[in-house]
Design brief:
mainly alpha; 3 helices; two-stranded antiparallel ribbon; disordered N terminus
Length: 99
């Protein structure tokens, strides 16, 4: 396992399936923008053929995790926005009923 610390978040590159689940949980503290930036960097490296075959495999796994993280963050944010809009709508309805 290779590990390092950067920008207040911890990341591990791991080999086993069990440890990769742990990796996902560790990286969930990463901000959406950081994950997106890292994903863009990986894509750029792949497009420019800067990765050897071993690193490519690791980066593909990392990209998969980052995509999942970004999707979950977007879904969570969408859910929060919908809840806020529903709450606001309910408050407006209550105000109209009081009149």
């Amino acid at each position: 396992m290779i590990a390092y610390v950067a920008k207040n978040w911890y990341i591990c590159f791991v080999i086993s399936q069990h440890e990769s689940t742990l990796l996902y949980h560790i990286t969930t503290i990463m901000k959406y923008e950081e994950a997106l930036h890292e994903l863009e960097t990986i894509v750029e490296q792949m497009e420019s053929n800067d990765l050897d075959i071993d690193t490519l495999s690791q980066q593909l796994q990392r990209a998969k995790q980052l995509i999942k993280l970004c999707k979950e963050r977007l879904a969570y944010t969408d859910k929060e926005i919908q809840q806020l809009l529903n709450e606001e709508e309910e408050e407006e309805e209550e105000e109209e009923e009081e009149k």
